[in-house]
Amino acid sequence: QPQFVESGGGLVQPGGSLRLSCAASGFTLDYYNIGWFRQAPGKEHEGVSCIGSSDGNTYYADSVKGRFTISRDNAKNTVYLQMDMLKPEDTAVYYCAARDRLATVQTMCATPDLEEHDYWGQGTQVTVSS
Q1: Cβ contact 3:24 at 8 Å
Q2: Nearest to 128, CA basis, from 17, 1, 45, 24
Q3: Each residue of 56-78: pLDDT tens digit?
């Protein structure tokens, strides 16, 4: 059974850092673009960052550019999102998703509906507050 499990969320003060992990089981990440999405209270899902399956192409939303870094370790079947200089507006549930590598990372991140992708996780809560 293909499954994604996100971890690493929590409560952090503004300006702090968190590293989210997304571990896949039941399928191999090598053939998929991977994206991180988030949903803040009362808002729609939004694409945060996406990374290509093998070419290393990355995409970042303007709101996180320069603060977040996406990476993947195909050997560990895991994707990461390093989040630095966190702001209260980054508070949200963060989800990872996988999509067939035929789609570009830009297309993937521009598709916030998780059900449009091939696999997605249950999310991890990130709260940025003093």
Answers
A1: yes
A2: 17
A3: 799 999 999 999 999 999 899 99
